[in-house]
Amino acid sequence: MYFRRHSPTAAWRFAMALAAFVISFSVRDLLDDWLTSVSDRGLIVFLPAILFVTYFTGFGPATLTLILSALSVWYFFLPPYYSLRLDIDGAIVLGTFLVGGAIGIVLVHWLRITITRAEALARQRQVLSRMASSLSTSTAESNSQTAN
Question: For residues 78 and 112, is the Cβ–Cβ distance under 8 A?
């Protein structure tokens, strides 16, 4: 994968996080009338952006995406709208969103680490396999020369 083979700069990674947040916010805002009646108030729209950012850019940018998403949810999409006040229902929805997002970040980050380790082990195995085959080839050649 391009994103994992090339190490992008921190500025690029955080710019991707910001772009993913803006896209998810725009989608959520466009669907506002339809999603307001949903029990989670349509906050699920932010989750793909958070998980995408975690997988492709890492833990820090994903955390930024989660924080920006939570703040925008709190201000724009939870009653009382355009206010940072929260009633008990809003606090439960926001808390659930934060916990779910944090768990998603941790799991996807752990997946990235596991994939990176597996790829490193595969490369190490290839090198050891080549070394073993070259050793067996040179040992066979030296045995055939000794026999002659």
Answer: no
Per-residue pLDDT tens for 73-99?
999 998 888 999 999 999 999 999 999
pLDDT tens-digit map of 18-60: 999 999 999 999 988 887 776 667 888 999 999 999 999 999 9
d(CA 102, CA 77): 20
Q: Distance from CA of residue 11 to its chain's centroid?
A: 17
* pTM over cut 0.85: no
Peptide bond preceding 80 in cis form (omega within 30 of 0): yes
Q: Return the closest-CA partner of residue 27 out of 5, 44, 52, 11.
A: 44
Q: Tell me the C-alpha to C-alpha distance, in Å, between residue 48 and each of 17, 54, 69, 81, 86.
A: 12, 10, 12, 24, 25
User: What is the total residue count of the chain?
Assistant: 148
Residue by residue, DSSP assigns 82-121 as TSS---HHHHHHHHHHHHHHHHHHHHHHHHHHHHHHHHHH
Report the alpha-carbon distance of residue 13 to residue 61 in Å, rounded. Answer: 6
CB-side neighbour CA atoms (13 Å) of 125: 6
Instruction: Supply 75's token pair.
Output: 């201000």
